[in-house]
Specification:
67% helix, mainly alpha, single chain
């Protein structure tokens, strides 16, 4: 496995974009799930947004939370070159894909929130899937560290195969 000493510029760019986007997503999650009427009126949501989020199902709220939290944690993990970035980003993308399929297909999200929000959400889905793909690509290219094995004393094991030192 190759070990990089520096992160490429595009890793920083992707990380900053994801952290910025999903920090705004965390704010949006808190405001929409608390049914903040002022926030919903001030945002680019259509007139039906308040009614749409008033009785939002817990299962969809959970998917929304998983999407946002895993993307934020995945962005941090990617910048730290942790192998956790792949699992977190793929989980985020799967949660958002499921959420969008249910809300657009079964709950009338497009009609309730308007076309601007619909296109915006589809763009976020593309960004999130792209982020997951980027994390997978960087992992395969050696851009993240695999978890290290620990010996019985709890220290990291520097031997990567089963060979024992000669006695």
């Amino acid at each position: 496995m190759t070990t990089e000493t520096r992160r490429p510029w595009h890793t920083w760019m992707v990380g900053v974009v994801i952290l910025f986007t999903y920090s705004m997503g965390a704010w949006d999650f808190v405001k929409t799930m608390s049914a903040d009427a002022e926030y919903l009126r001030a945002s680019d949501f259509a007139a039906g947004a308040e009614a749409y989020f008033t009785d939002y199902p817990t299962s969809l709220m959970l998917l929304f939370a998983i999407n946002v939290l895993c993307a934020l944690a995945g962005g941090v993990a990617m910048l730290l070159r942790s192998s956790w970035a792949v699992g977190l980003s793929v989980t985020s993308a799967a949660a958002m894909l499921t959420l969008d399929a249910i809300t657009f297909g079964l709950r009338g999200r497009w009609e309730a929130l308007g076309s601007f929000v619909g296109f915006f959400d589809l763009g976020l889905l593309g960004l999130t899937i792209g982020f997951a793909g980027y994390c997978v690509w960087r992992r395969r290219a050696g851009g993240s560290r695999a978890p290290q094995a620990r010996d019985r004393s709890g220290r990291h094991d520097r031997v990567t195969d089963d060979r024992r030192p000669e006695e």
